[in-house]
Task: structure prediction
Amino acid sequence: MGVSKTLRRGILAAALSLAAALSSPSWAADSLTMWVRASGANAAQHLVDLWNSGHADKIALTVIPDNQVVSKLAIGVQSGDVPDVISFDLIYMPDFMRAGLLTDITDSMKGDPNFAKVAPAYAHLATYKDRLYGTGFTPDVSILIYNKDLFRKAGLDPDKAPTSLQQIHDDAKKIRALGPDIYGFYFSGSCPGCNIFTTSPMMVASGAKILPANGDEEPLAGTGVKEVLQLFRDMWSEGLIPKSAQTDNGANFAATFKTGKIGIQGSGGFIISDLKKDAPNLDFGLAFLPGVKEGQASAFVGGDVVAIPKGSKHSDIALAFIKWELTDEAQLEGLAKNNILPSRIDLAANKYFQADPRIVTTAKAIGIGYVPWVFHFNDMVNSDSSPWIQMIQTAVFDGKVDEAIAAAKAKMKEIADE
Amino acid sequence: MIATRRGAMGLLYAAPAVAFVAFFVVYPMLDLIRMSLTNASLLGGGEFIGMKNYVKAAGDATFWHALAFTAEYTLFITPILIGAGFLLALLAVAPPRIAKLTRAVVFMPVVIGLGSSSLLWVWLFDEQVGLINKLLQDLGLIGQPMVWFADATLGLWAVILSIVWKVVGYGMILLVAGIQSIGADIFEAAMLDGASYWQRVVRITLPLTVRTIALTTLVSAIGSMLAFDQFYIMTSGGPKSETFTSVYWIYQNSFIYFKQGYGATLSILLMAIIFIASTAQLLLMRRGAGT
Result:
């Protein structure tokens, strides 16, 4: 009887020890939740799969429709029901930081050697009052694409992309002369997002500053704004741009170039794989978006950032994931191997991109690119009624360039003051 | 005593419906009014700011332009929908073969989602591959393809055409029900008196379906004042914000600019305007029916 009692005590002690060991963080594997917006889901899935294959703590990815990310996160933070980590369109970063929706990760990231190699645009965008709240995750960037076949037919050098606004104009004229349904240039005239992505870098490259971070800053400052709008207006008046551009709300942003009837267009890094798949016979080149003068170039750094929402139940593991996604392993095997751009600029010319120099150029564009740090980005730029798109439409299609810039400046200032 | 008991029983029977309305209508309405007095944001927070949103709305040129545009759209499309709906309803109560064909063909678009039908019409109006430009060119009515959504007026009429195609069948069905409720003996008596078809339509069908016409007009006008999907998909509010409808502008403020307090204010203003307009419409029709 005495032995039996001792045995029972032993079993109980062993069971308690085992339970304690299993509940200890060093033994137990946790399951993290991650939200990603639909547009970035493919790239995020590659990273999450790679993480899950090598870590005990698994991540379950939930894809959120693009237009629901903001409301879901805001409601989640207020109700305490948030994912452990979230990836979203980088333009919302300033608004999210100011609203207190994200966790401060400054102390953990500042000393990280990989973080120092991330494109400066991301660190700039994810900083609010000298504190860091996120970093680059799955980038995209704007570039200039041109149709080499049309360049050849027009007597232009197919290996020489236009490197100034004047060259774009000159080349577009020669290409337009090839036929009634061949056009020199294209842009989506009713798409605010497309134009901040591809048109604003030409202005920035020419020395302009587009958006104000607060009511004290001057919006649309610099002559580059007018010079780019005037170029577009001239090309529109001369018929170098198809009429359909006026009403394109972005639906044909990528599709029009695939027809092979457009000479030059601003686009994004995503277009490379799109064109290879949808228009495999189209011979195209790629370069930085130029400014007024030779040698001036810029890009809009887009894509998604990653951050930890306030109230994350596994913020320590979420932070480990964020640090891991900046390592060589994640950037190369998770992103570059799948033809996705890395956010670290030192890995732009990696082994997976060597076969196609166009991807290397795109990856390098992230290093020279900018992203506006601005509240109310939707009001100022992204909405269908924004002063940004009103300015472009009034300047390009109505020819009132100065009037358009003045009206947009006043409206942007009013929004920035809110 | 019995009366009191009956009253209590009546309240008990009505309680579920009252609770439903209180929870799903009254409470959200009161919360909307509360929110309209705050600077609530989709990102959280919201402090009481009194009537500031209402003052801002008074000076919001885009909102008033959107309201005027919505009213213009409603004034154009409502008579078309009612007129075409009535004529089609006459066909739909004709001899069986014509009636069946009319009902099937005209009602079919009603079951298609508004988003799907709007996308369909975007492609039909496309300047490069759209069938409408091709048709107009083949008929010799236009030389070059038209860019329909580059012009606010053309865009408006393109949307009206798409919506008439989409919803005219709904009005037709309501009016068919109204026409069929007229006793056959009245028509027979009129025929014996030698009334022609159109005389019967004007003197009998029209006056006796006036209540159905009033209902259809009211439903159609309210639906048009709340138009959103078709403009969101077909014009995106462009060119230069000229085709924003009231609801589209409320959506922009609430969900794109995150300004939920201001969006609530605009919603209340729109609701008040629709309420006043609908009441006036009903009073006018009642007075018309009484004279």
Summary: Confidence is low (pLDDT under 50) at residues 18-27 of chain A.
